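Lab notebook: predicted structure, single chain.

Context: the supervisor wants predicted structures on file for every construct in the current expression panel, including those that have not yet been purified. This is the next one on the list. No modifications to the sequence; it matches the entry in the shared construct table.
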Amino acid sequence: QVQLVESGGGSVQAGGSLRLSCVASGITERNNCMAWFRQAPGKEREWVAAMITGSDYTYYTDSVKGRFTISRDNAKKTMYLQMNSLKPEETAMYYCALDSRNCVSGQYKYWGQGTQVTVSS
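Prediction complete. Output recorded below exactly as produced.
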C-alpha cells in the first residue's frame, strides 16, 4: 500500500525559505513521477514541480523556476521541495503526489494529506 506523508510546512515572512518533505512508502517501481502541487483557498490545485525518481529529470512551473528545487533521497525514500524567496501569493496547502504517466500534465494516482505553507507580507 502506497502512503505519502508530507511535513515541513509553516509560517514565514515574504522572502523566507522552507523545505518540505514527503516520505513515501510502499513504492515498488524505480522510475516514477513524483510531484508537488499546491492549492490556495478558493483556487484550483496547481502543479508546482515534478521529478522522475531514479533519474535527474526535474520539471518546474515557470513561476517557481530559480527559487524552488525538487529533489529526492532514495535511501530515505523522501522527496523534498526547497522553497526560497517565498511570496505571499504562494500561501497554500502543498501536496506531494506519485505515479503518473506524464510528470507535468498527467493525473497522479497517490496523494499525501498536505502541509500548510503560509507566507506573510
